[in-house]
Amino acid sequence: MRILLVTYWGLTNLGGIWTYIKQLSDKLAQQGHEVTLMGSHVDSNTLYLLDRNAYFDKKAYYSSLLPYLDPLQFPHLHQEHGIFSFELGRYVFEGGAAALGLEQYDVIHAQDPISAYALRRVMKKEVPLVASMHGALARESYYEYRGLEPGLTREEYEKRPIWSYFRRMEQLAVHAADLILVSSKWIGQVVGGHGVTPDRIHIQPYGVNLEEYEAKALMPSPLKRRQGKKLIMYAGRLEYIKGVHILIRALGLLQQRRRDWICVIAGSGSLLEELKLQAQALGVQDDIDFTGTIDNIPAALTSADIYVQPSLQDTQPFSVTEAQLAGIAPVVAGTTGMPEMVQHGVTGWIVPADNAAALAGQLELLLCDDSLRARAGSAAQRWAQANRSLDTMAEGTLKAYRRAAEMHGWPQQSRPAGQSGHLIQGAFHPADLLNVITPGNPLESVLRSRLPADYRIPDANILPG
């Protein structure tokens, strides 16, 4: 089977999602499938095929489109800067995907809502499309904005045009795909809320290469323990949605009760300096090690006693599975998909999300009871080994690909493929634009031959109703 795994985002900058893509592609290739990876290269500003020496210059195409998306002619694009930025970025991605080619694959597996909808929009030939919903785009955007505006409430944010835009993009994406692949019941419910029938939703939890994990875990730990101190650990991005600020707040409370611990926060992100300042303000700067990104998390976990995942939203974090495989029963926030990974009190602990006091209390309990941690850790390890293998994930994903091919009927009545019933006045085909502004540009003939004849920029489908 010829398979394209594709994301709108930077291909190797996706944290756990990159782990998912890389492990899946390697496993499928071992089984004899031809797997190609498409995504953006942040440094060179290109859309490219990994290891194929094929790329598309996003910057040049962006510069060609930008002057012709005027706010006076297309005011709906300029309601908020975020809307314009995402829409222009999507049009550039669509042109790049079409130029790189989509028709040679037996199945295309999109890794986010933007790429799922974008790819359906530029298809001329029928290709089964599977879309993984690794998270809830609109909810994630709320937490990104709340990180910038700490007092922002969900109700206030939902009144903004950017919320409606992301909700519309989610809706377009799930109806563009033949089948939706989700890792948890929670995200399946989010997809179902957009009117997708259960037969088009396939639940397949993430898996880990157990042999590779065990080999890494045997390597020396990059962490140094402090004598007489138990080690609490978090590994992941340092962004607001990950809730690391809640963990640090909890550690400030914990410090008032006991001092027999240190915390390692492994990862990088935009909040690094802010989190360091928070730790200093709470007087726990000497009790927290900000290590930066650690390449070998399995080895690092051999030094840990407690693992915490304090996210405000997370579907099925790889780091939680890695902790379980290390024999550590994790503490997770009781929201979104994380409670599905833990049986409270048996294979881990669930605490209320965004509640530093509850998290501090759970950490204090675990620090007091070595036998409890060991007993739950063994149960967590057995559960992860039985339920989170890469072999199981690959098998289930292939099953989803075959189901998508069987279900494939293009376009479905419910699918917003092509253009909506109306066109935006002044909308254009990019090949026509290039023919006018850069006569002889070779990209003009490529886009004319590979994009649908009715493809237009701006896209009328993002308009509500």
UniProtKB/TrEMBL annotation:
Listed CDD domains: GT4_PimA-like
Residue span, Glycosyltransferase subfamily 4-like N-terminal domain: 15-211
InterPro entries linked: Glyco_trans_1 (IPR001296), Glyco_trans_4-like_N (IPR028098), Glycosyltransferase_grp1 (IPR050194)
Keyword list, A-Z: Transferase
Superkingdom to which the source organism belongs: Bacteria
GO function terms (MF aspect): hexosyltransferase activity
Span of domain Glycosyl transferase family: 223-383
PANTHER family documented for this protein: SULFOQUINOVOSYL TRANSFERASE SQD2
Protein name: Glycosyltransferase involved in cell wall bisynthesis
Protein's organism: Paenibacillus typhae
